[in-house]
Structure formats: C-alpha cells, structure tokens
Design a protein that fits this description.
This protein has about 290 residues and is an alpha+beta fold. Helix content is about 20%, strand content about 30%. It has one domain. It starts with a strand and ends with a strand.
C-alpha cells in the first residue's frame, strides 16, 4: 500500500479512477465495446460518466500531557528526559492502536478516516470518495458471501470454495490482481490448516522482521485478528489502487509545548492528517459469512 505525502494547499484529495472505460448509455451502466469497421459510423456515445473520486481530509490529535507536579518530581536533566520519553512512547502506542482499528472501520465516527468496512463494504455498496455505487455500479467492490453461495466456512472449503471464486473475479493478470489478503484469526486458522502439506511463506527478510505470512497464488496472506478486523472476514486488496495519503505538514507533527493559563501543567499535541483512499473499488474484494 502506497503512502503519499500531499502538498499543503489541497483542501480535498481528488484521484482519477482506474477502471476499464466502456461505452455507457443514459442509464450509466457499462456495456460491451462497440466495434467499427470500414465505413461504419463511429460511435460517439459518452464514454466517461465520472472520472474522479474526492476524499475529505481527516485529522487525528494525540496529546502528551504532564502536570507541573509530575515535572517537578522528575526534576533533573536525566529524569525530565525519561518522563518525556515515556509519555511520548505511550502517546505513539495509543495512536498506533487506535489507527489500526480505524483502518478496519466504516469511517462514520467524527473525523475518522475511511476504513475497509467503508471502502470494501460487506454489501459492496455505499458512497465512497463522493461516488454513490447505487448510481454507478462500476464503483461497487466485489464480495463473496458464504451464505448466499451455500458455503460453510472450514479448513476444507476456504481455499477452493471461498477464496478461489473471489480471486477469479479480481484477477486481471499478473500485474493486476490482489497482492495482499488480510484475514481474521478464524479464517486464517482455516487457511493455514488447508495448507499443512504445501505451506509457502513469504520472503525471509520480512519474516525475520516479525511479519510472518503465508502465500495464496501471488498474494501475501496475513492474520490481523487483534487489530479491529471484523470477525469472519477476509479482505483481498489490490494495493495498486490504494493509497494512505498523509499531509506533509501533519505527519505525526509534534507541536510546541502548550501551557493552560488556569492549570499547572503542559500539553504537547501530536498531529496526523490524511485519509485512506482508492481509485478502483471493483478490484477490491471481501469474503463474508
């Protein structure tokens, strides 16, 4: 997944859509390509109904707070440093934990970033980037619903009956297919059990860094069940179309120490500003129960 630092003046982020352009009629639904030969009249129907998605900036603030009493108790150069270091470390940990949950959210909380439950919705519908998928069907993400397909999730069904059908709908060749699959703990246990005799791990450099995953075709398969992912979910992500956009002036920017006029203490705000965006929703998929 790419991380992009945006220029400061932008109020909103506009991103060109990466979907196959086909001829469209007044109903705004895609149709097959129209072929012309020799002296046939060229088709001049409108080909593009909408060309860009627009995402709002979202801002997160984490505050490092120390009372005057704490600062005085920890007086002395070494102790002051220890107090500041401990509180800063705790603030960053708080941000990471909350941000991880936000990445899987539906983005409906105040000033919350778009999460996967919004971008890659269980129903495949919704308004993302200002585009309503009820009006523009090309903007629906792809889903595999186990219940609708009469599939009971298990170690014997997860690969061929659940993952393969979704993969086939998302695979457009080696350069345009899911490259990241994230599962909750239940689905990951099923998948690992199905791979007992043919396990294939990702490259050793990532594994040595503590990131251990299996492979499904060309995609890395991770479990992330303790970070906010909904239960019984597996997201098939094509990260060619996903960007975590970060404002260059608020990328965990540590502001100056603020001191209230009516309290004995200080506050150091840490700011982050950005959003999770995508430019091709149809190439993202999710397995649900």
């Amino acid at each position: 997944m790419a991380v992009k630092r945006h220029e400061p003046p932008a109020r909103k982020g506009r991103y060109s859509l990466d979907y196959g352009v086909t001829h469209r009629s007044a109903d705004k639904e895609p149709h097959d390509n129209i072929f012309d030969s020799d002296w046939d009249l060229l088709n001049i129907q409108q080909s593009d109904v909408i060309s860009a998605a627009e995402y709002q900036w979202r801002q997160i603030a984490v505050n490092v707070v120390a009372s005057g009493r704490e600062q005085r108790i920890n007086s002395g150069e070494s102790r002051i440093f220890s107090l500041a270091k401990a509180k800063m470390k705790n603030a960053i940990r708080t941000f990471n934990n909350s941000f991880s949950s936000d990445l899987y959210s539906d983005g409906t909380a105040t000033n919350q970033i778009n999460g996967l439950q919004a971008l890659v919705a269980d129903a495949g519908t919704g308004t993302v980037g200002g585009i309503n998928s009820s009006s523009f069907s090309f903007w629906k993400n792809t889903i595999f619903d186990c219940s609708a397909n009469s599939v009971t999730s298990s170690a014997t069904t997860i690969e061929n009956s659940m993952m393969l059908p979704l993969w086939l709908n998302l695979d457009r060749g080696p350069d345009d297919q899911p490259d990241l699959i994230v599962m909750d703990n239940t689905y990951y246990r099923y998948f690992e059990a199905s791979q007992t005799s043919i396990k294939r791990y990702m490259d050793a450099s990532n594994a040595n860094g503590g990131l251990v995953s299996l492979k499904y075709k060309n995609a890395d398969v991770y479990f992330d069940g303790n970070s906010g992912i909904p239960s019984s979910h597996a997201y098939f992500l094509n990260t060619n179309y996903i960007e975590l956009v970060v404002h260059r002036d608020a990328d965990m920017e540590v502001l100056e120490d603020q001191r209230p006029i009516n309290q004995d203490g200080s506050v150091i705000p840490i700011l982050w500003m950005g959003n999770l965006t995508l430019s091709n929703r149809k190439m993202q998929g999710v397995i649900v129960e």
